[in-house]
Amino acid sequence: MNLWPPMLFSGIRVLEFSDDWRHARVRLRKHWYNGNYVGTHFGGSLFAMTDPFWMIMVMNCLGRDYIVWDKAAEIEFVAPGRGDVFAEFHVEESVLDELRKAAAGGEKVLRWFEVDVKSSSGEVIARVRKQLYVRLKRRD
Q1: For the segment 98-127, what is each residue's pLDDT rounded down to a tens digit?
Q2: From CA 106, how far away is CA 134, in angstroms rounded?
Q3: What is the pLDDT of residues 33-59, one digit of tens each?
Q4: Taking the CA of residue 138 as centre, how many other CA atoms within 13 Å lie in the half-sphere pointing to its CB?
Q5: Residues 28 and 82: beta-carbon distance below 8 Å
Q6: What's the CA dihedral at 35, 37, 40, 44 to 10 degrees?
Q7: Distances in Å between the alpha carbon of 47 and those of 43, 62, 101, 104, 106?
Q8: Left if phi > 0, otherwise alpha if psi is -120 to 50, otherwise beta: which for 11?
Q9: Mean pLDDT in the chain?
Q10: In what order do the strands lie in the sheet with 109-119?
Q11: Which residue would you say has higher pLDDT here, 90 or 39?
């Protein structure tokens, strides 16, 4: 993923990605090319560092019997980001069980996932929410 152009050219790096798709840690370095007019992190870069992870992780955890798509997203800017920032994603088995149960009859399931973008000192810079669409694939 670190060579994928939207990540590579934004200063975004995947620091950790567990083999079981349950955990990921991402860093966005502050550079001249990803700053905004006032010298803090560009909001689009803060969002981009979190964008693909919930969908990729849930899709791989649920397996090939499910359709998983991004449906909606929100970002709340909490504090200015002036240095490196980090986001850490965790998918719990209880959430996967909840999704499997809700989608068992073929219905679509919409569920929000949240992650905080934090400075190296732990200060919350932004809160990002992603809504996933999950559905059991139809068997024709």
Answers
A1: 999 999 999 999 999 999 999 999 999 999
A2: 10
A3: 888 899 899 999 999 999 999 999 999
A4: 3
A5: no
A6: -60
A7: 6, 24, 30, 32, 31
A8: left
A9: 94
A10: 12-17, 23-28, 85-90, 109-119, 124-136, 66-77
A11: 90
Query: Taking 70 as the threshold, does the pLDDT of residue 140 lie above it?
Result: no
Cβ atoms 132, 54 nearer than 8 A: yes
Select from 81, 59, 60 the least CA-distant residue to 68: 59
Between strands 109-119 and 124-136, the pairing is antiparallel
Look at residue 7 in the predicted model and tell me its pLDDT: 76
DSSP 73: E
For 41, how many CA atoms within 13 A lie in the half-sphere containing its CB?
29
Give the closest residue to 127 by CA, choosing from 80, 91, 78: 78
Nearest to 138 by CA among 44, 67, 45: 67
The whole-angstrom separation of Cα 100 and Cα 122 is 33
Please state, for a pLDDT cut of 70, what percent of the chain lies above it.
99
